[in-house]
Amino acid sequence: MKIAFIGLGNMGGGMAANLVKAGHQVHAFDLSEAALAKAREHGCETFSTVPEAVAEADAVVTMLPNGGIVKSVYTADVIGKAPKGALFLDCSTIDVATAREVAQLAGDAGYIMVDAPVSGGIAAANGGTLTFMVGGTAEAFAKAEAVLKPMAKAVIHAGQIGSGQVAKMCNNMLLAIHMIGTCEAMALAEKAGLSPQKFYEISSKSTGYCWSLNDYTPVPGVGAASPADNDYQGGFASALMLKDLRLAMEGAQGARANVPLGQHATKIYEAFVEGGNGAKDFGAIFTTL
Ligand code: NAD
User: Fold this and answer.
1) SS3 45
2) 95 lines ligand 1 (CB under 6 A)
3) So what CATH class is 2-160?
4) What is the 160 CA–ligand 1 centroid distance (Å)?
5) C-alpha of residue 6 to centroid of ligand 1, in Å
6) Residues 277/185, Cβ–Cβ less than 8 Å
């Protein structure tokens, strides 16, 4: 299959490489020359414009920073430039409204589109073990699944177009909330005289268990290996968590949903990022407690 891949950054670089490994012909584009050079090393053919990259594509995958960029890339350079009937898969994390708007524009022009954001970080992108949450028709999902599988541990049909982004924003709002809760509980345990290690042993087998505590313990040297053991370097940057929380707050406003803890988590990550900690793993909230 000929697959155009636009956006070869931290995530897209590894994802495009996995499509090549699966035997696809990958036509790649990024604004960064360094990203293009890396893509060539991984067997992609690179192009100097988006229209050239998508000209012969059966499918177009995008992995871009935000909704504004996704909309401008599709409207200016993909819709009308890719062959009619091509499948579009936007894997970026963006707001639900833009995902639905771009899919509508693509549909009106004779294309099939899904939103397919991912869970899993750079290691999962490189390792081909991302979880994709896909929004689109059943027919679009069946086609998308075949493209996504070489990059995936799981590909799940969330529902109609935009549902992938809804799943992503809700998942990451929940993740932020239970990470902050885990950090608070571990700091409280320590201050009240219980070692964080002992608290981990007990709570990870009690009703307090959750992914942040059991699998990504945010305290150095305690529990599961995590970026906390490496001074909170690598992992999932707090700035990206803040981006996702802001998308969730925007989505909550659009859906008239009441999300008091989501709002509070957003304020906590806002203050942390504004304090110069945007590059630190999101578990570093522990250091503020
Ligand atoms: P990144 O900044 O490393 O990569 C984005 C790439 O897009 C860059 O290489 C940039 O040059 C390119 N780009 C920007 N504008 C472009 C344009 N107009 N045309 C072509 N290329 C353009 O970001 P990333 O970490 O790879 O994240 C990509 C998406 O994946 C984001 O939406 C992010 O929220 C989401 N995501 C990231 C992670 C993570 O752990 N990094 C995890 C899950 C989801």
Assistant:
1) strand
2) no
3) alpha beta
4) 24
5) 9
6) no
The H or E element spanning position 156 is: strand 152-159
Local structure of residue 281 (DSSP, 8 states): B
Closest Cα to residue 7, out of 37, 28, 33?
28
Rounded CA-CA distance 59/144 in Å is: 9
CA-93 nearest atom, ligand 1: 32
Q: How many CA atoms lie within 13 A of 118 on its CB side?
A: 28
Q: What is the pLDDT of residues 26-63, one digit of tens each?
A: 999 999 999 999 999 999 999 999 999 999 999 999 99
Provide the annotated active-site residues: 168
Q: Do 233 and 227 form a contact (C-beta atoms < 8 A)?
A: yes
Mean pLDDT to the nearest integer, 249-264:
97
- What's the CATH number of domain 166-288, 2.60.40.1940, 1.10.238.10, 2.60.40.10, 1.10.1040.10? 1.10.1040.10
From the CA of 91, how far away is ligand 1's center (Å)?
Answer: 10
Q: 15: Cβ below 6 Å to ligand 1?
A: no
Q: What is the pLDDT of residues 102-152, one digit of tens each?
A: 999 999 999 999 999 999 888 899 999 999 999 999 999 999 999 999 999
- Of 42-56, 70-84, 156-170, 223-237, the one with minimum mean pLDDT is 223-237
Q: What pLDDT is stored for residue 234 in this prediction?
A: 85
Domain boundaries, the chain: 2-160, 166-288
pTM for the predicted model, two decimal places:
0.94
